[in-house]
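Take a look at the protein record below with the fold in mind.
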Amino acid sequence: MPQQVEPQNEYAFSNGLYDGLKAMSQYIIPLETLVVFAIAIIVDLDAIDWLLGFLIAFNVVLGIVLGFAKRSYDRSEAKYVGTMHVVLGTHGGKIFSLELNVDPDDLDTHEEVTFKVQPG
């Protein structure tokens, strides 16, 4: 019996890690920067510029990395759970057939599924 090899994840981030970094980039770091800035104004801290600059620069770099990761994922086949083949039937209608890359019993565990359409 041939040995099955599990496909390797070719992406730097898992879904959970990507979602966490995205939330950090969109909400946590900007909020943290705003709080540090507000406290610096209230207590009249002049030497806080380096921290604000670091937070802003870190967030920009994180956003760029996440943008590259998303673009790489969007250009790949990883987002598809399978292929939908569409052919013309004998009486002019269309026949749709699904070729799944996942176990059909697991489809109901997904919030949404995407198929690559293959006209034929």
About this structure: Residues 15-42 form the longest helix (28 residues). The chain has two helices and three strands. Residues 4 and 93 are 38 Å apart (CA to CA). The two ends are 34 Å apart (CA to CA).
